[in-house]
Every structure is written in structure tokens, then in C-alpha cells.
Design brief:
3 domains, 17 helices, 6-stranded mixed β-sheet, alpha+beta, about 20% strand, Alkaline Phosphatase, subunit A, about 650 residues
């Protein structure tokens, strides 16, 4: 089902005005309805009805995961700094994790070793070595390849790899050396691919020892020294922005999955080589990527993928100050959820080129390697570890990023770098563990550098898989992503002590993506901008996160796109027991979903008289996890509930009832 077909509709039902939002639990985007999430076992105890129109929907549990067993394991919210406690003056207190939810997470995510690239051997056909005075020399193994070598470089005119056959390693060295020595005006994008057949001795059952040779197709992704374009433009004497976007990563999932990274950050704080801030009350604007990105870069809070992240205004401000703008994605640019989505284009290379120029993005380098590295597949469809030539894909991206930033700082050129990694974006929720060691190493490389602000930012928590279908705590995590900041030691002298103190103070105050949006504008050439009229009701400061946030802030001052859950305790919310009104709300919501499926089919097939086409009418089995919120200053009640249907699809539904008379 497409985004346009469902999920925001105004219905007049007698005297009741209802706005219905629907999200398919377990689906990252609004895909065609299909079975993704198994129904929870042992949480809801009920028989299933065969027909939802018989009001067979039953409320079985008021909050999935709740048990009366007093011996359940108590869980607490993980904090980066265990020596500190939440500020008692702050009104928002994070909803306490459900008992046993930490055990469920541990069983799901850590019962097996993390996925590795050990199933692949690393072949170094060629290497780039540094010699005197920083020069780079290419050396290739003359005996490794037993066939014609195929050499791949990016064609900027088409956005694809151009493959060339090379007959010996001497020619290969010359080709790569010419790439290394190319002027920045003729970009090499920081990488090339090498493919050939190697012959290795292996034990083969039934063969004599001297015949035990096998041939293998091998491929190497070789990183090249970054090319730096120098400029005479007067630069903004400010901070370099280094934004690491951790797609689908909650605060809790980061804390439990990234021990090496957390250790590196703690070492930086302990050794006083920099500053580390961890934001314990960062509320998600929504549970999809593009809405969060759009609010971050443009300040626009809206639903739907149309129009991309609208980052032109902010990026052009940095561009005007001489900054280099680099965007890197670990998804293929052709895929709709990667670069194309952020730029709001239609997956045509010429349009992407035009959009890059309009936004002011100077380079996308490693993004162009992702199609080959992923074999043109999407992250969701692949195993937990994404490997290429025996290395994690993100290790190439972070190595290139670290080298690029080293060269830029030596050249005195400021930068705004945005690196999108989809480590959390798969059903098992375990892939992020593969990032840990590489991210820790990368952070260590930043610890002694000046003028850098590194932001580790999640858009939302994991929104599909067994965890979210097993415990209600996962629903809270979905709207409580990770936000951590590493600042270089000299940053107080660059941005001022007052802004640094605000970063420290706001760690235990309720913050949103708009606070980061205004902080980015504050750090841009020209400084802070005025808070727009649309944002005035959110009590956001012109300096955003760089100014103290009010201690009494609640989700009334946070932009929330429904369906959404406020992470604060007692936010005018109560969990309700079974009742006729809740059953009727569930009935109404399911009817609207079925109507949307029917309308979509009839729009696509106007000649069809009846039916749902290849889809089927959804039949409810049960509903639960019902909670109601009284909207501030309005005679309205928001009802949120889960609806499970036959074949085990599950929906998270929000219904806003303006006059709750049923």
C-alpha cells in the first residue's frame, strides 16, 4: 500500500470527528500489506474471532509485556554516565522500562555471537602506500591474479561503475596511480574496484594433493587518498559539523549494542581530550526517516516522503562560508530510501546531479560504491553483516571519512559532513553490533582534533521485528532514539562557554529534532536565525540545543507526527481496560484500513467491479495495548491501540476523537 493511499483521513461519523493514523508494525515504510510480524506468544491470551464485524475484538492486555509476577526482572533506562542521576526538577521523566524487557532484549539480540565477515577472506590485490613528503604510491601483487583483471571506476556522467579490462598488474598500477594523482577538479571519488580470478590450494575431497587447486572470483574495494579542493573564499572561523546518522537506532539499543564505542567516548571524557554529552530525553518526531531528516535540515514538520529532506537553505548557509559539504549513504543511490529520498528526486541520475548542485553538496564519494558493495540490494533484504572482501561495508565508509577530514583540517578547510548508515535497519536488530568496533576506532581518531562537533543521531528506534512485537517497551524505544555529541577540547573557545554549558545542562531535559535544527543554524556562518511562527508553540530557543531548555517542558512543546508515543511518564495518558467504546474504535479503524485497500485497488483497476485484487480484506483477531491521551486545551481524546489480524499482521493505530460520545 502506498503512502498516499492511507493513514491520514478526516471522517465525519455522526457528531464525531475522527482523524485516523495507521502504522503497520514491523514495516519500516508503508509497504504493501504483508505478513511481517508474528503475533506475540504468551503476552495476549485469547481465542481469535473469525469475523471482526461480530465485535469479536478483545482487549486482552492493557500493556504488552505486563505481568503480575513480582519476580520479574526490573529494568532501568541505560545511562551513559552512571554516576549521574536524572534532574528531579525536570518535569519529564522517561517512562520506566517494563519489567523483563531488558531480558527479552538480551535474549533476542545477544543470545548468539554478532555476525562477522569471517566467511570471507580478504584479498589485497593492490595497496596505496605513503612515502616521503606524503606522496602515495600504488603497489599491486604481480602473482595474485590468474586471469584478466577488471578495473572499475565511477562514471560521474551516468552514476555507475565503468569497467575496463587490464591484462597485467603493471598496467593496473599505472591506472590507479593516475587516479591518485588526478587533480581535485577531476574527482576519483576516493575508491576503485578490482576484480580477477585467483588460484588457491585447498583440500578437495576425492582429489590427489597436487590437484587441490581451486579458482575463486575475488573483488577488492580499494580506498584512494582524498582529493581536496582548496578555495580562496573567506571561511567561517567556526566549528566543523560531523553528523553520523544512525538509522533505526534507539537510545537503549545503542547503549546495549555499542560497548566499544561507549568505552571510547568514556575514555575521551576521562582523559579530558574532549567533551561527551548524552541526551537521555530525546523525543522522536516520528518513526520514519525522511520526516526526521526534513525537520532537522529545514525545520518543516510534515508527513510523507515527497519533497525529500529540503536541506538546501541550511546547507547553502554553510556553503557560503567556504565549507565543504559531503553527504555519504551506505545504500545504493538508485534505491528510493537513500540519497534519492533525501534529495526528493525520481531516481534519475541527471536529476540527482542537479539536486546535489542546488543543495550545495560538493561530494558524495563512498555513496557511489554502495551499489556494487550491496550487489544492488537494499539493506533490509540482506543478512545482519554487510561484508565486502572480508570487511564490513561501513569500515570502508568510516576509514574514508577519517582520512578525508584529516586532509581537510590540514588544508584549513571547514566542513559539514553527513554520513547515513543503516546499521539498525533490518529485522533482527543485531546488525548495529557490527558497527561497534569501527565506530569506536573512528571516534578515537577524532579525540585529538580541534574544532569538531560530532553528533551521533538516531531518527527512531527499531520499528519491525520480534522485539517490537514482544514487549511494549519497544514501542517507547521506537520514539526514543539515540542522541550523543562529542565536542573537541578547544570548542569552548570556538563557540563560547555559554553554549557548552547549555549542551551539558540539556542532557536530562526533553529535547527534539528542532532543537538540533536551530543549533545547526546557530553554528552556521551568520549565526542564529529567528524562531519561525510555526515553531513558536514548541518553546524552542533561537540557539536551540545551544541554549538552556526549560525544565518544565513536556510533549506539548515537541512536534509529534502521529502515530507517536510521548516518552515522558504520565503525559495525560492512561491505560484503559476493555470496553465497548474501545472495541468500536478498533472496528472503525480496521474498516478504514480495508476501505483504503479497496480504494487503492479500484483506482488502479477501474474496470474491476468488486474485490481487493491480490490483497485481501483484513479480518481482526484481537486488539490490545490501549491507551488514551487527553489533548491539552481541546475537547478531544486520542486513543492508541494495536490491532492484530488473521495471518498475524499487526497495526499501531491512533484515532483522535473530537467528541468522545461513544
Amino acid at each position: 500500500m502506498t503512502t498516499k493511499s492511507v493513514y491520514t483521513m478526516l471522517v465525519v461519523l455522526g457528531v464525531i470527528g475522527v482523524i485516523l493514523y495507521v502504522k503497520l508494525i514491523g514495516s519500516y515504510h508503508d509497504y504493501t500489506l504483508r505478513s511481517i510480524v508474528p503475533a506475540p506468544i504468551g503476552i495476549y491470551q485469547s481465542g481469535r474471532s473469525n469475523n471482526s464485524r461480530d465485535l469479536g475484538l478483545k482487549l486482552i492486555s492493557r500493556y504488552s509485556g505486563v505481568s503480575t509476577n513480582r519476580h520479574n526482572q526490573e529494568c532501568n533506562l541505560a545511562r551513559f554516565d552512571l554516576s549521574t542521576k536524572p534532574d528531579l526538577q525536570v518535569k519529564c521523566k522517561r517512562i520506566k522500562p517494563l519489567n523483563n524487557s531488558c531480558k527479552i532484549a538480551n535474549d533476542l539480540f545477544f543470545s548468539e555471537p554478532k555476525e562477522s565477515c569471517s566467511h570471507q577472506k580478504t584479498y589485497n590485490i593492490c595497496e596505496v602506500k605513503k612515502v616521503k613528503k606524503g606522496a602515495s604510491v600504488v603497489k599491486c601483487s604481480p602473482s595474485m591474479c590468474k586471469s584478466t583483471i577488471v578495473f572499475g571506476i565511477s562514471d560521474w556522467n551516468q552514476g555507475i561503475l565503468k569497467w575496463i579490462q587490464i591484462h597485467n598488474t603493471t598496467d593496473l598500477e599505472d591506472r590507479i596511480q593516475s587516479l591518485v594523482e588526478q587533480p581535485p577538479e577531476k574527482p576519483n571519488f576516493g575508491f576503485c574496484f578490482i576484480k580477477c580470478i585467483v588460484e588457491e590450494k585447498e583440500k578437495v575431497v576425492g582429489k590427489r594433493e597436487e590437484e587441490n587447486y581451486v579458482q575463486k572470483n575475488v573483488s577488492q574495494l580499494l580506498l584512494l587518498p582524498p582529493q581536496i579542493v582548496t578555495s580562496s573564499t573567506k571561511t567561517h572561523n567556526g566549528v566543523n559539523i560531523n553528523l553520523i546518522w544512525l538509522d533505526t537506532t534507539s537510545h537503549s539499543h545503542f547503549m546495549r549494542s555499542m560497548p566499544a564505542t561507549i568505552k571510547s567516548l568514556k575514555n575521551i571524557r576521562r582523559q579530558e581530550t574532549g567533551y561527551v554529552f548524552s541526551y537521555n530525553l530525546y523525543q522522536a518526531v516520528y518513526s520514519h526517516t525522511i520526516e526526521t531528516a526534513r525537520a532537522l535540515f529545514s525545520g518543516v514538520v510534515s508527513k510523507g516522503g515527497e519533497g525529500g529532506s529540503q536541506s538546501k537553505k541550511l546547507m547553502r548557509r554553510y556553503k557560503s562560508g567556504g565549507y565543504e559539504i559531503y553527504w555519504s549513504f551506505d545504500t545504493c543511490w538508485k534505491h528510493k530510501w537513500g540519497l534519492d529520498m533525501h534529495l526528493g528526486t525520481n531516481r534519475r541520475w541527471k536529476n540527482i546531479q542537479k539536486a546535489l548542485a542546488e543543495v550545495g553538496i560538493d561530494r558524495i564519494d563512498m555513496t557511489l560504491s554502495s551499489c556494487e558493495a550491496l550487489n544492488h540490494q537494499f539493506y533490509y533484504d540482506l543478512r545482519a553483516a554487510i561484508c565486502y572482501n572480508g570487511k564490513y561495508q561501513h569500515s570502508y565508509t568510516l576509514s574514508h571519512l577519517a582520512e578525508l577530514q584529516t586532509h581537510l583540517q590540514k588544508a584549513g578547510k571547514p566542513f559539514f559532513h553527513f554520513t547515513d548508515t543503516n546499521v539498525g535497519h533490518e529485522g533482527s536488530g543485531r546488525r548495529i553490533q557490527t558497527l561497534d568496533e569501527d565506530l569506536a576506532h573512528y571516534i578515537n581518531s577524532l579525540s585529538t582534533r580541534d574544532n569538531i562537533l560530532t553528533i551521533l543521531l538516531g531518527d527512531h528506534g527499531n520499528n519491525f521485528g520480534k522485539y517490537i512485537s514482544t514487549t511494549g517497551e519497544a514501542r517507547v524505544e521506537l520514539h526514543h532514539p539515540i542522541l550523543m555529541i562529542h565536542a573537541s577540547k578547544n570548542l569552548p573557545q570556538v563557540i563560547g562557554e555559554d553554549k557548552m554549558n547549555a549542551l551539558l545542562l540539556n542532557q536530562d531535559r526533553l529535547v527534539s529534532i528542532l532543537d538540533l535544527h536551530y543549533a545547526f543554524h546557530t553554528l552556521a556562518p551568520g549565526g542564529s536565525i529567528e524562531v519561525t511562527t510555526n515553531h513558536a508553540r514548541y518553546n524552542v530557543e533561537p540557539m536551540g540545543l545551544l541554549a538552556p531548555i526549560e525544565v518544565n517542558r513536556t510533549c506539548d512543546s515537541i512536534p509529534l507526527i502521529q502515530p507517536n508515543i510521548c516518552i515522558c511518564e504520565n503525559y495525560n495518558t492512561k491505560y484503559v481496560v476493555n470496553g465497548t467504546r474501545q472495541a468500536m474504535v478498533a472496528e472503525f479503524a480496521l474498516g478504514e484500513i480495508n476501505n483504503a485497500i479497496l480504494n487503492q485497488f479500484r483506482t488502479a483497476h477501474p474496470a474491476a467491479a468488486t474485490g481487493f485484487g491480490s490483497c485481501q480484506r483484513l479480518v481482526a483477531s484481537w486488539f490490545g495495548n490501549v491507551r488514551e491521551t487527553s489533548e491539552k486545551g481541546a475537547a478531544a481524546v486520542t486513543t492508541q491501540l494495536d490491532i492484530h489480524v488473521l495471518d498475524d499482521d499487526a497495526f499501531f493505530v491512533t484515532v483522535l476523537i473530537s467528541k468522545p460520545t461513544i
